[in-house]
Amino acid sequence: MVALTMESTGLPHPRWRVPILGDVLGVSPHRAIQDSWTMSRRLGPIFERRALGHRFVLVSGVDLVAELSDETRFAKHVAPGVEALRGIGGDALFTAYNHEKNWARAHALLTPAFTRSAMRSYHAVMCDVASDLVGYWNRSAGRPVDVVEDMIKVAFETVGRAGLGHSFGSFDRASAHPARAAMARSLVHAQRRTLRNVPGLRRIAYGFADRRNAADLAFLHDSIDEIIRARVRSGPAPDTDLLEIMLDAARRDDPNRLDRDNIRYQALTFLLAGHETTAALLAFALHYLSQDPELYASARAEVDAVWGSGTPEFEQVPKLRLLRRIVDETLRLWPPVPAFAREARTDTVLGGRYSMQAGDWVVVLVLALHRDPVWGDDPDRFDPDRFLPDRIRLRPPHVYKPFGTGARACIGRQFAVHEAVLVLGTILREYDLVPDPGYRLRIHERLSLSPAGLSLTPRPRRPSGPA
Fold first, then answer.
1. Which of 17-26, 96-105, 174-183, 193-202 has the lowest average pLDDT?
2. Could you give the CA distance from residue 156 to residue 177 in angstroms, rounded to a whole number?
3. Choosing from 277, 278, 330, 405, which is the catalytic residue?
4. At residue 356, what are phi and psi to the nearest 5 degrees?
5. Would strands 54-59 and 361-365 be described as parallel, antiparallel, or unpaired?
């Protein structure tokens, strides 16, 4: 990884900087993104943070982000937090370095599988998983449910079935599937290794944790390898999924074929990125809907009018325009990937002032960008009408980045949005959601942001849906 050498002349930074430790007073390793967001409000659209020998430059100003989105000048940078996940993702789409050949091959091979038209082939699976959630919640007999955990079940199962042709039986167990549990532990380990990596104390502080993480990674690799072996033994799948696309390219000796190790890494990446982010999106959206009875009623009325009582058709999902605005506004307030890094392709000057050498990188703080004043008064308020067409046209083009930017932006964004609208529509049609009156939104940080401790009580609206 190229070290950041961007000149600090004129860059604001937090007060009370401590030698060696850096800007650690008043901040928490559990709230690194939220603390940076708070600092951005005081320090402005570009500032620096130092921690445990590491230096980060954070950017959230619309004009600066527009420059950083220029693919001729800047590219994705694999920042330390993402690099720490290479044990799971290797050189797959999310964690690959730009120079690694398998990234470009996978992108060319898999991009057609994530287009809007390709969603049709995944729609039935998404409907089945949403139906499984309904059955799971009906068995809860009106008790409060752990919203984040249940949305993880939905998202993990959807990716498993639609992407790998494999069910993890997520709704047949009270606890997390062992593969999901191992992945969750690896995420926590990667975060801690990134944020608490004290020089000189790594082996002492992380010896046991590193060994346990190695065991978790080995289990994940073995689990996915067995899914791949089973597919190879059974022959080509009748329904094309992501795994079949990759295996078929290998069978045909396609120029973009991937080796078996990389197919495993891609599969793990689909599970990792595809369930963490979508689950968080669903949980946040359900929180805001449960807090606004009028919005809930309006969104439900739209679902009733468009879907009726049967299984929704593929074409009916994008017709839920209010629900899509709710999804978009949720992504604005709590983007599933709250920050991403960009590096200079050549020597350049950012904002006409900040010199960057080739390889220098900065962090785009999406959480702060999405609260820029261009969003209007009170940008912290949840307001789906911000995404009415007329209001979208009035905003700068680079102020909304929930899925990253450029060639390395999230390849599965269409998949995630279709799934989110479908699942939310199903819940609205089937349930009244009763919030805990004492709950106040708290944010949990991992790969993505999610609402901590969120529970809701789903009460069946009526046995057979709308009349």
1. 193-202
2. 9
3. 277
4. -130, 135
5. parallel
d(CA 430, CA 415): 23
Instruction: Decide if 55 contacts 48 (C-beta within 8 A).
Output: yes
Position 342, amino acid: R
User: Is 9 one of the annotated active-site residues of the chain?
Assistant: no
Of 274, 330, 286, which is closest to residue 145 (Cα–Cα)? 286
Is there a catalytic annotation at residue 340?
no
Calculate the dihedral angle through the C-alpha atoms of 119, 424, 34, 177, rounding to the nearest 10 degrees.
Answer: -80
| Six-digit token string for 19 | 């030698």
At which residue do the structure tokens 């190790």 appear? 261
Report residue 54: phi and psi, to 5°.
Answer: -105, 150
- Residue 127 is a catalytic residue: no
Q: Which residue has the tokens 């944020």?
A: 195
Distance CA 334, CA 282 (A): 11
Report the relative pairing of strands 339-344 and 354-356 from DSSP bridges.
Answer: unpaired
Which is nearest to 107 in space by CA: 367, 366, 463, 408? Answer: 408
Residue among 376, 372, 412 nearest 66 (CA): 372
Q: Which amino acid is at 36?
A: S
Give the position of tokens 């940078």. Answer: 77
Helix axes 321-333, 260-290, angle to 10 degrees: 100
The one-letter amino acid at 219: F
Q: Which of 47, 171, 284, 403 is catalytic?
A: 403
pTM for the predicted model, two decimal places: 0.93
Predicted pLDDT of residue 189: 86
Cα–Cα distance between 236 and 243 in angstroms, integer? 10
Which pLDDT band, with edges at 50, 70 and 90, does 89 fall under?
very high
Each domain of the chain, given as residue ranges in start order, spans 29-460
Q: Report domain 29-460's class.
A: mainly alpha
Supply 257's token pair: 């074929």
Mean pLDDT of the chain: 91
One of 127, 340, 410, 415 is an active-site residue; which one?
Answer: 410
